[in-house]
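Title: Request for sanity check on DUF47 family protein prediction

Description:
We are preparing a figure and want to confirm that the structure record we downloaded matches what your pipeline produces today. Could someone re-run it with the sequence below and paste the raw structure tokens into this thread? We only need the token string, no images.
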Amino acid sequence: MSARRGRVARRAHRLIEDLTGRSGRRLLRLLDGQLTHTADGAELVERLALGRVTPAAAYEEIRDIEHRGDDARATLIEELGQVLATPVDPEDLFRVSRCIDDVLDNLRDFVREADLYRPDELSFAVEPIRTLREGLTGFSAGLDSLDGARRGSAEATLPARHAANTLRRQYQEGLAELFRRPVDRESLKRRELLRRLDVIGLRLGEAAAAFADALLKRNR
């Protein structure tokens, strides 16, 4: 009997949190936590590109960061399946989380490929990764537009969308510079790593688009 009362009490508590908006704010905190782990991955890649950490050491570190990001996403998805009221459409929130996870996965792949290919230097990745970090910071700030009673605006996605577009341009410019050089093993290594940076930008753009969709639906 006491176990049943406990279950009823937990459900009542969950309903109160849903009705008062606390469940929605908890989801946003979990999503922001996922963004934080992704930003940690970007910061690590910047240190790698600057030569402050070896590829082998960076790969060990990014695996730990990826696990933390996966745990944050798993918790978010579990919560998403239990709450009655979400700050935005649940499917859009799921899409945003999935795209952020894709960004972190591709950061891991960049580190792994740098460790496998062992290029002479990675300085070409510094500016694109700094662009990514700016986009992630803006994305995190944009989550505030969904907090509380504020309706949010698609303009909250502008920093992330701008970063994604800038990353695409930096990839194109890096590729154009590469094509002006003789083809050798180093140029092939750089081409593959540049492509990985481009994919990271594409995934960031998809996350921003999903976020913009969520805000548009919320404000109808």
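Thanks, this matches our download. Residues 2-21 have pLDDT under 50 and may be disordered.
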